[in-house]
Design a protein that fits this description.
The structure is a single chain. The protein is an alpha/beta fold and about 280 residues long. It has one domain: Aldolase class I (TIM Barrel). It is built from eight helices and 14 strands. About 45% of the residues are buried. The strands form four sheets. The chain has an eight-stranded mixed sheet. The protein has a two-stranded antiparallel sheet with strand order 1-2. The protein has a two-stranded antiparallel sheet with strand order 3-4. It is globular and about 50 Å long. The structure holds iron/sulfur cluster. Iron/sulfur cluster binds near residues 11, 12, 15, 29 and 129.
Length: about 280
């Protein structure tokens, strides 16, 4: 096989080139029949009815619930990952159950009447590595008059976001840091995340942004000011959640972010944005 042989995945900026049968960096996509397909399609590791505020979305149907699903896999490697038990594992390392878009949409509809459910949220692991399942569920959810919610790292190619944007009603996108230097640390693409936020907002999606403050990494005033400046350039009305880090995964020995730092940084962001919230405090 030549060095350039293999199928290239166009889902995220990593552009994995995969030999037949090989699985990508995210563990959710594999080369089958000469092209890269989503192998975690419909494989649910998590299913729960969550308060919408837990996503977090603070200004979208407040007080409502949203049926929330997750699979396995992620295209980033944030050392502080809060969901590593599913996001950093593949199909043989987690337990999952197969689901179909129509069955999930029917369940979401039943829960609308019984439990004040507004729709379906794609969350827990990184949903965009299995964007085809998000797309197919979103179509079924819309047919039933319900809402689609995306919770994502936003690190995907423009073509993927262009397909999903008209189907997504609300999104919380992580903007983890202020620069490509920060995204080099977590294994992502800063420009792609910024583009996702812009595209979703332009498409009319309700967008909120979350920044997890990791001590010593993105806790300088200039860091949050740069993040708030970008968000304000999309719209100063976009809510920004400034949230506290707790030790997890490869940063289990680190100390939590001091609450005083979160409050200080939120105040810095408020110079540019009208709606800044603190989280995990
Ligand atoms: S989505 Fe997965 S397989 Fe595709 S390029 Fe990104 S990490 Fe690689």
């Amino acid at each position: 096989m030549s060095e350039t042989a293999g199928a290239v995945c166009e889902t995220c900026p990593r552009h994995c080139r995969l030999a037949e049968g090989a699985t990508g960096y995210c563990r959710a996509r594999s080369a089958v029949g000469g092209r890269v397909v989503c192998t975690n399609y419909g494989r649910l590791t998590s299913l729960a009815l969550d308060p919408i505020e837990k996503k977090p979305l603070s200004f979208f149907h407040p007080g409502g619930n949203v049926l929330s699903i997750g699979s396995y896999g992620c295209n980033l490697r944030c050392p502080f990952c809060q969901n590593d038990s599913i996001s950093q594992h593949g199909e043989d390392e987690v337990s999952w159950q197969q689901a179909t878009p129509s069955a999930l949409a029917d369940l979401a509809l039943r829960l609308r009447d019984e439990r004040d459910n507004i729709g379906l949220a794609y969350t827990y692991n990184e949903p965009l590595v299995g964007w085809e399942f998000v797309r197919d569920c979103a179509v079924e959810i819309r047919k039933r008059g319900l809402q689609n919610v995306l919770v994502s790292n936003g690190c995907a190619e423009a073509a993927v976001i262009d397909v999903l944007a008209p189907l997504i009603d609300a999104a919380n996108i992580d903007l983890k840091g202020p620069s490509q230097d920060y995204y080099d640390w977590v294994g992502g693409d800063f420009g792609a995340v910024c583009r996702t936020i812009r595209t979703l907002h332009k498409a009319g999606c309700h967008v909120e942004v979350t920044t997890l403050i990791v001590p010593g990494r993105n806790d300088a005033d200039d860091d949050i000011d740069a993040i708030a400046t970008f968000v304000a350039s999309v719209s100063p009305d976009i809510p920004l959640h400034v949230t506290r880090f707790f030790p997890r995964w490869r940063m289990s020995d680190a100390t939590p972010t001091p609450v005083s730092d979160i409050r200080r940084l939120a105040d810095v962001a408020r110079a540019r944005l009208g709606r800044v919230l603190t989280g995990n405090c």
